[in-house]
């Protein structure tokens, strides 16, 4: 499909950078399109947003060292998982992983092995960790400093929240915690409870450099408003705001809403790359991050196996949707643990997210004391959507030849 107007927009961005979008003809086209439909945006709003959004974003992370992970003599034990900070929901994935560590520290769960992957006991711990994390995230994930932010990842707070976990049954109801004192909160569930049209890609080179990228116009084709002569639709992320003025995610000027899209990255304890990954699908994204990562770490699955495996999803009611293909014993086991379970079949399985992984490993035949170690690349592309993984090299840089790998995925379910 040809889109010459979008090509024109890209040329403007290449020539003028960010200012070519937030000022000038493109900005005027956006403002005109909105004001013609009763909107209130002014050119000054876009110019100010451009200034406010120039700051670099510092990712948040959590070190995951539980569950008997191998101790590499050079890379250390465990991994560090990196996510986009709030207003993004990546903190929910980190909270869930932190809670899993607290469950183990309190002897509420065992050290799971590959044989436990997708068992009822294994998934019960993940589900409850996600339910607790979402009960916090639906309240606290917002544009800061209007919310609790990284306080949600403090060990003492996670330890306190982990006390809610019962390894014998699902908890009936979770309320959000109070990592900071803000007075009596108002009960609310974020409106960001819908899927989104998203594109994810990751790219890595032979030296271990990697990019993890995700973009979306939110629901459907966003607003479906196309500024004149620009070739793109305007997003509708504002629908993820709360209209409750007491909510941390309340709508306000110069404020960003709860944001669903989260590119993920994982490093080893020495800072070297473990993997770049993403799982598209609204509120499924942090859930997918947790499941495909633990599938590799605990289930000992390769990237493609981790993506192919059936998943669970905690829905807006904090009940559990289970993907067709999950063992019947697991489904019955979850019901025995008092989970409300719905099995999702066919095309609707797209709700369980669509993921990509590029993983970097060390050649096991390299000597432990080798000065340089051979990088081994593997990758996976989710069969639930249109995507692919392929080597994009070799690329010659001076006298050296470097290989690279590229993966991409579109959110349209198959």
From TrEMBL:
<dbReference type="InterPro" id="IPR043137">
    <property type="entry name" value="GGT_ssub_C"/>
</dbReference>
<dbReference type="InterPro" id="IPR052896">
    <property type="entry name" value="GGT-like_enzyme"/>
</dbReference>
<dbReference type="InterPro" id="IPR043138">
    <property type="entry name" value="GGT_lsub"/>
</dbReference>
<protein>
    <recommendedName>
        <fullName>Acylase ACY 1</fullName>
    </recommendedName>
</protein>
<dbReference type="InterPro" id="IPR029055">
    <property type="entry name" value="Ntn_hydrolases_N"/>
</dbReference>
<dbReference type="Pfam" id="PF01019">
    <property type="entry name" value="G_glu_transpept"/>
</dbReference>
């Amino acid at each position: 499909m040809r889109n010459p107007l979008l090509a024109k927009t890209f040329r403007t961005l290449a020539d003028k950078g960010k200012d070519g979008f937030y000022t000038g003809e493109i900005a005027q086209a956006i403002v005109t399109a909105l004001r013609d439909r009763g909107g209130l945006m002014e050119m000054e709003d876009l110019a100010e947003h451009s200034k406010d959004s120039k700051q670099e974003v510092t990712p948040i992370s959590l070190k995951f060292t539980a569950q008997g992970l191998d101790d590499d003599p050079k890379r250390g034990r465990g991994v560090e998982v990196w996510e986009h900070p709030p207003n993004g929901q990546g903190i929910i994935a980190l909270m869930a992983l932190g809670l899993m560590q607290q469950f183990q520290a309190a002897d509420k769960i065992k050290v799971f092995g590959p044989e436990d992957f997708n068992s009822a006991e294994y998934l019960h711990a993940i589900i409850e960790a996600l339910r607790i994390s979402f009960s916090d995230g639906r309240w606290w994930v917002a544009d800061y400093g209007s919310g609790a932010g990284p306080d949600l990842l403090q060990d003492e707070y996670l330890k306190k929240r982990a006390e809610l976990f019962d390894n014998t049954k699902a908890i009936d109801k979770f309320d959000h915690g109070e990592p900071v004192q803000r007075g009596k909160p108002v009960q609310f569930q974020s409106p960001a409870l819908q899927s989104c049209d998203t594109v994810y890609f990751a790219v890595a080179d032979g030296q271990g450099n990697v990019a993890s990228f995700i973009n979306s116009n939110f629901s459907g084709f966003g607003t479906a408003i196309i500024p004149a002569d620009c070739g793109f639709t305007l997003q509708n992320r504002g629908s993820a705001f709360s209209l409750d003025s007491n909510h941390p995610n309340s709508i306000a000027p110069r404020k960003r809403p709860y944001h669903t899209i989260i590119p993920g990255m994982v490093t080893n304890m020495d800072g070297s790359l473990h993997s770049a990954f993403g799982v598209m699908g609204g509120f499924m994204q942090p859930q997918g991050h947790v499941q495909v990562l633990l599938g590799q770490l605990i289930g000992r699955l390769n990237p493609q196996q981790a993506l192919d495996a059936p998943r669970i999803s905690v829905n807006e009611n904090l009940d559990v949707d289970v993907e067709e293909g999950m063992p019947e014993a697991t489904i019955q086991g979850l019901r025995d643990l008092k989970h409300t379970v719905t099995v999702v079949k066919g095309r609707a399985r797209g709700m369980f997210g669509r993921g990509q992984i590029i993983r970097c490993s060390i050649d096991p035949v390299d000597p432990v004391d080798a000065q340089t170690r051979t990088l081994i690349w593997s990758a996976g592309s989710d069969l639930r959507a249109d995507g692919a993984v392929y080597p994009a090299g070799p690329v010659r840089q001076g006298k050296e030849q470097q290989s690279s790998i590229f993966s991409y995925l579109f959110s349209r379910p198959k």
